[in-house]
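# nightly structure sweep
# worker-07 picked up a monomer target from the shared queue
# config: single-sequence mode, recycle default, output format = structure tokens
# input follows
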Amino acid sequence: MDIFLFLSILLTAFATLFAVTRQFHMLQQSSYFPSRYMDWLLGALGARAFFLAAGYVLSLLFLFAFEGFLPLFIFSSAQAFIMFLAALSGQKRAKKRLVFTHRVIRLYTTVAVILFVPNLLFQIFGVSDNAAKIIFIVYTALLGASPLPALSAAVINSPIEKIIAGRYVNDARRILKANPEMAVIGITGSYGKTGTKYILGRILSERFNVLITPESYNTLMGVVRTIRERLKPGTEIFVAEMGAKNPGDIKEICDLVHPDMGIITSIGPMHLSTFKTVENIVKTKFELAGAVEAKQGKMYLCGDNEFIRARKVNTQTVYYGSEQGNEITAENIHVNKTGMTFDICRPELNFSVRTKLLGWHSVANILAAVAVALDLGIPVTDIQYAVSRLQPVPHRLELKPFINGSLLIDDAYNANPAGSLEAAAVLARFTGMKKIAVTPGLVELGEAEYEHNYNLGLALADVADVIFLVGTERSKPLTQAIGKTEFNPANVHVEKTFSDALETLRGMTDANTVVLFENDLPDNYER
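# output follows
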């Protein structure tokens, strides 16, 4: 084999390994769901696919204009260098970088094996110079500049990942069986579950040895990982957050942990791209109630939610919320720059609490946690102390000092219609201050996505003085909504990225400014 041909193939292989970094990054941010990854892929390629193809046709003509394989070597060297810089730059600019987990390393290994095959064929079967050039161009187009390697590796590795996941699940079952006295509390909902989890864990830790699933570990494998890595002998209560993107996801987690108690915080139009209908969401969330019923346990339900109220539950229940008819409610809510105070009321028991948290959804989350804590025997004084010490869940209506002495309401992890409107309401409460909102809008709402983003645009136009919209395409529903109001168009800024928005608003802030970050979409949604 000609040395330049050999080096060209080798450099193309390296270029491909650099190129798949972006693909694996987006696959990981899509939680390895093929449909979500393909949505990003189709949006990312778009019209650029034509220009990529045209570029390779021109390259082919260029390579045939010269004798030998030196042009191939020059071409592949340039490609490897460009792919390396692109991969490095992409990770530096990423909001959340690719995490090199064992799964990602297995994907890279599979791609490396795929890349070895053409090299082997070249060495086994000698071909003419022109044939070698044609094969090289096809090889480069299919591997070096397309999503094919990442997709192929994901498909090839799928059976292996299922086997590995099965082993991890069985190991988690073994650990749970070794702790038969431990109580399990499951928490699910379209929104509010993470906040409720942290609040409940903090209150219960006043009297119990408690383990909660960390961060947003709310998938089956997230719960499994928590059990395998963090569950210790002597744990008295395990609080498991349960997320779902498809029917059956909650049941799958419940079949592992068998919850004794459950909380359903809310039900709304989330992940409609996979659930298709709200009724499917309702059925999935109430898979938790079915599991608790099997243990003759108790369910704690947000009685303000119409979908929850309309669903019959065949086990003990406690309803919480602001409306009449709930067993536990909140009254006399007062908000200021340091947080909120309010009274918790249930039959024959009233007491006040103070918290650094903001928003009605935080009140509802506290009510849910307090209802469970009271039934588990936590004294009121311990509850009051724990609530006063609560810290905001990172990036969920979290108050922070910001640029030039301004105040930031960081709601970057919030991504649901009701929560986004609540964030706008919180912003409105900061009277006498200049109010700036920054948002890319909401995603994964299926056919209702336009409507909910339009409503968010109307809400922000009603309360903000300046609005930054992130993403020229994704922000169109918000732009159209704001345009229907009397909001000053000069105070609407559409930026390509969140970083661009931050640079622009830097000169607009002072000590009398409050800035709301409402949702900060991961890189796979940025466009």
